[in-house]
């Protein structure tokens, strides 16, 4: 073990030295790319060479916690009583403006406030990392170089368009900025002037940020008059193998299979398709999600994030807490998910990349394994499923 740790330490030092050596030459390449994108020569010559590598950004990009945050832990950390109360207060404060945005973009006020609350706690923390330095650091890192190179160029174009200085641009380690944490490319494409001052500043103008969020959601396909989804309850012997974001069905079909609203009332008989999500397995809360849920996931690709946005929006609008059992989850280690993915792939169930992320592909493969082994097929790696995998697959 000590020998292995020593090798890993030496490898880490080697990679850091290589990154430090390559950073200046990478900046030269970024200068040429910026020229090709039409960035002002003064910015190319003066700003790019002054970039400083941000090791914190590299560390954040590679952090992988020992334990996977459970659904309830995730939700409790984001949909808090304080955030709900503050959202309701801001709903009253900005009601007229938010209703004007709804009339123009079709996005109800409580959803815009939910995004704002989750992204920066309503502007309470927008990040302190130097945006250009962080993006240059990530652009010069091989793991996702192309994506961050494009965002770095977009940030330079944004600085030029809005007459910003590098010191004006602060945000997350990944380069997201402002009240609504837009990446620079999204800022360039979707941000709008909400306060009518002739500029677009997502750091200093709440109205610019809210209007930009509404414009972005409309562009992504938000459907006016349709909610994100709802909590539901299932009866005995429900076929949980039908769950999954990629398996939508008409509401009437879900009702026929025993799904009801969380208060026990019948589902609405609207002509709408919905998918069933079980973020904590069959013993936890269940949600039917509609097309607007997909729009939320185009803002952020995490199902848990999208559920948190929807639930926070509901709470801001006056709804109550979830009624499903939120204390049923066993805490998973990242190694549990890695083991699940490796085992499923070995047994012929396509779980996709072995990355420690419990995504839709892993859940689908897990449901197939559970069905084939007479387990409740909810796509969740509970102890009985992990035990069954351990018996049928060799230890990785």
How is this structure best described in words?
The chain is α+β, with helices and mostly antiparallel strands. It folds into three domains: 17-52 and 126-220, Helicase, Ruva Protein, domain 3 (Orthogonal Bundle); 66-122 and 222-329, Orthogonal Bundle (Lysozyme), CATH 1.10.530.10; 332-392, Orthogonal Bundle (Muramoyl-pentapeptide Carboxypeptidase, domain 1), CATH 1.10.101. The chain is 52% helix and 7% strand. It is built from 17 helices and nine strands. The protein has helices spanning 2-36, 41-46, 55-62, 71-78, 81-93, 95-105, 109-120, 131-139, 145-161, 184-190, 206-220, 251-256, 291-299, 303-316, 334-346, 360-372, 383-392; strands at 67-68, 129-130, 170-171, 229-233, 249-250, 260-261, 273-277, 286-289, 332-333. The strands form three sheets. A five-stranded antiparallel sheet has the order 5-7-8-4-6. Strand 7 (273-277) and strand 8 (286-289) form a beta hairpin. Helix 5 (81-93) crosses helix 7 (109-120), helix 6 packs parallel to helix 11 (206-220) and helix 9 (145-161) crosses helix 10. The radius of gyration is 23 Å and the shape is globular. Mean pLDDT is 91; it is low at 1-20. GO terms for molecular function: peptidoglycan lytic transglycosylase activity. It holds the Pfam family SLT_2.
